[in-house]
Amino acid sequence: MVTVKDGERLDDLLGRPGKIIQSDDVFSFSLDAVLLAEFVWVPIQKGQLVDLCAGTGAIPLFLSYRTKGTITGVEIQSKLVDMANRSMAINRLEERIQVVEDDVKTAANQLGHARYDVVTCNPPYFLANDTSLRNQNEHHTIARHEVLCTLEDCIKTASQLVKPGGKVAFVHRPERLLDILTLMRAYRIEPKRMQLVYPKAGREANTLLIEGSKDGKAGLKILPPLVVYEEDDTYTETMRAILDA
Fold first, then answer.
1. Where are the alpha helices (DSSP H) in 3-95?
2. Quick one: which of 53, 148, 208, 243 is 20 to 30 A from 126 by CA?
3. With a cut of 70, which residues of the chain have pLDDT below it?
4. How far apart are CA 70 and CA 2, in angstroms?
């Protein structure tokens, strides 16, 4: 019997049949996790995947609906690791998904170099010295700000983990696009696919999805824009299709 502890709750997975343990004390998953899990290429029948900065395990859970491969999440906060692995047990996925407690900066030492088909990451979005949106809650601060790992740490480790020809995908903010492209190439991940996400038509993009291939050939495809909401705040047809997949 899996225990849901005091202060925790069981939330739905936005159209999927599973559940996830979450708490107001830690950062809850957002649409970013859904979008990244849907965007990235995955091997359908088998393969090994890693999700860096896994939090409470939302991206591994969403990926499990698209692939029968094994998924390892990497998360530095022990509280979140415990919550994530209990969620896997609730969904009877503990044989396919495990979340390990480790530092992204050194994760390849434990998990192994050039072993994985796919690496995903929803890293902290804000620089460590950006105090404008910093939260007093330590768990929220670690999830949102580069206090324990930087964008470069995430890209470097992803490059270490993935096989030649394997895929690496990130969700981030559009304003970091040049940093992301520069770092991906510096660590031999050639950008191959990119999509911008807009909250509504006519608004500025607020989310960036990007995928690269380790030691891949040059050539970046820009996918059609993804708009999340109609003017009446209902999901667009494209977004509903993603949530109902």
1. 31-39, 58-63, 78-90
2. 243
3. 125-148
4. 21
